[in-house]
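Suppose you are handed only these lines of text.
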Amino acid sequence: MQLAKTIVIKPTMNCNLRCGYCYEFIRNGTTYCKEAMDVNQLTEIVWRIAKLFPDSKILWMFHGGEPLLQGAEYLEKFCDCIRNVNKTYPVDYKIALQTNATLLSDKCISILVKNADLLSERIISVSIDGPKEINDITRHFISGKSPFDEIENAIYRVKESELVFSTISVVGTHNVNNPEDVYSYLRKLGANLCKFVPNYNSDMNGNPESYGIRPMNFAHFMCEIFDLWMHDLPNQNDDNKMIIDPIASIICSLTNSVVTWCEYREEKCSNFTCIYPNGEMWLCDNFIHETMKDIAYVKNIFEVSDEELKTSLLTLSKVCSFDAFYDMAMGRCKDCDIYEYCKGGCLPTHNEMFKKSKDLYDEYCESKKMLINHIKRGVDLALS
Ligand code: SF4
Ligand code: SF4
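From them, the structure of the protein bound to iron/sulfur cluster can be written out as follows.
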């Protein structure tokens, strides 16, 4: 049977930065999974899955921690492996890279340029939250020093190559009140895809902590970003156009086009698998390891037989109790008048809010409605 999915591969959970809101450290602790995945273990996983599913289509997302901590040679061996597997089996394997960019050396860039045909849409995805004065508030090296100059420098070197870059920006207390500064900086930087993800870190009662914000803060921020983007649209052409998520996902939902972001898709987590350095397979790294193991932990890839691995990858959501979790969490959305466009959001986030505080969960839905309706009005106006 054909397997089409994204596999997030985490060669290490370690990172050379200590961002104030980092979910890996906050959710799963500094001690979770200290070991790193040896490059031979990584390439064996790729070969093994290709052999089990010779017609599979997989996006291998190189993620962490910071995956480039493993070094340029590791990256090169990973790219070589994907190329050789593509030649040996009728599979369609691509690579994506998510990095903080501080270790994106010329050597790494030249490896990626050499393998540009394997990179999904030739994109390197860089985490950056806005201009220096904003980024420096939360994103810093372990020593406390600012990594901003290294990040910006790496982005400019990527721009000089034949690769393109996208950005992922966390929206928290450090930038939520500065949408104009964030928008104009990212626009000037020239990313072709900018993704904004809210930081909903909160305590047991749902009170924001570690730069966390409330759902309505995020909705207001995204509404402003949408207005700035709409205003700026006449200045955009094929060479400098800027796609922004979740705006693009919401517009696709409103116009019945294909949506790629899982939060806005009915399937949710079932197209994902996240493999940790110790071989643990989870549906996604958004699940909290301490409390959600029964919902989203699949198996350890280093401990299962080929037959078990095959069954697990084909029936991921049945190996854990995700299906029941999905029905329970999505049941709340049954009668919602914007379900068609919202699709319930990110399930663990949605569910954590529900568990922590009814007010918070109600606000989550209110924020979804506000943002979707705001974008809908803008789109209707533009089309009228
Ligand atoms: S947990 Fe959230 S981010 Fe991860 S796949 Fe599921 S919906 Fe997407
Ligand atoms: S707004 Fe709330 S109830 Fe409605 S679909 Fe979204 S998450 Fe579900």
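What can we learn from it? The chain has a mean pLDDT of 93. The radius of gyration is 20 Å.
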